[in-house]
Design a protein that fits this description.
The protein is α/β, with parallel strands linked by helices. It is built from 13 helices and 19 strands. A hairpin with a 5-residue loop joins strand 9 and strand 10. Helix 2 packs across helix 13 and helix 3 packs antiparallel against helix 5. About 0% of the residues have low confidence.
Amino acid sequence: MSGPNFANRTLWTADNLDILRGMNSESVDLIYLDPPFNSNRTYEAPIGSQAAGAAFKDTWTLSDVDLAWHGEIADRSPALYQVVKAARLAHGPGMMSYLIMMAVRLTHLHRVLKPSGSLYLHCDPTASHYLKMLLDVTFGTAQFRAEITWKRTSPHNNAKRWSPNADTIFQYAKTSEAVWRPVYQPHSAEYIQKKYRHKDQNGRRYRLDNLTSPAPRPNLTYRWKGHNPPAYGWRYSQERMAELDREGRIWYPTSKTRRIYLKRYLDEQPGVPVGNVWTDINPLNSQARERVGFPTQKPLALLDRIIRASSDEGDTILDPFCGCATALVAAERLNRKWVGIDIAPLAVKLVKQRLRDDMGLFYEVVARTDIPQRTDQGVLPDYRTHKHHLYGQQQGDCRGCGEHFPFKNLTVDHVVPQSKGGTDHIDNLQLLCGWCNSTKGDGTWEEFKVKMAANGYL
């Protein structure tokens, strides 16, 4: 593994698909993406806000989708393509187009994620059911970790249905080794008053817990300081009971006929584990200090929780739809590295401004528009040296038109062009005849097939 081929604090202004193709495999530790939702709405930032001028149309038709993406999914992942086809039958070409856009990106996001990494995809009910199917295919159903429901806003009166006021966040792990750091919330005052009602001589609150073994343990049926053992025996050995006693952690009743208990101190408990329904993180209102006016901006607290749970300090966080940089700011605050991608040129200005406001005047961001060149495939020979191997592999046939040609009449072509992140690795090479090569030009293989089909050759 050669590590990432980009610097920390890098922000690309480009189509994220091209950038992802050029990123080294297994180079990021955590991915959060808040992509368009296919909401059939147009979003604009208000005039006078930091994000003024930011806008995007979240309505999808086949004209919005590169036909090459369609071909790439159909060619490389039949299972993904079946999900896309089902969406067209149920919802029409708009949903199909949106899912094609998402599917081709998810395949590359999976590739750049480390084995210890997780991906969090933020969406709403518009397409959540299909997005989960895409994730199931891409990551495998065994790597599904959570479907988080975030209460995005308060319910509003709706005469015809339950008020929609929540978003969905899917978490998938790359492997079973994914980082997981449980998150806890403090106990409520009511719970503390009810459960931790005892105090020791130092004023520390505690509750009484069972010292009885949950299953029969005949070897732990000793008497302890005049107290008979429970029917199943004690939970701990005599050595451990003596240790707890010295620490003052055993509660003794005034009567020997009553049970003894273990003291559980409140200040030693982590709190209440956070589940998959999040109602404690408020959405951003119009007066929130962190608000920059960007359409669909998410609160820092939301990203703070995700990053803390699924990464460690020094890990690299990727947001391929970084917008106004909420994930990047949260990553910086938590001592993580980060990399962001956004297609809008305004994003660079907004990200720089927000990070400098948060981190200081001299905070620097590496702004790039070029496609990174992969370095994780070793030192590759000149791609033309593979011509003999490819000729034998293809048995002298042009991979485009399928016609047989002499060795000298075939040329080595990059399936994904170098200008779009393609490498000289043999897996990205093929032989084409002169006509097919000139027809393909600097496009991808999927674009070439679209041209061939349009002219009746496929």
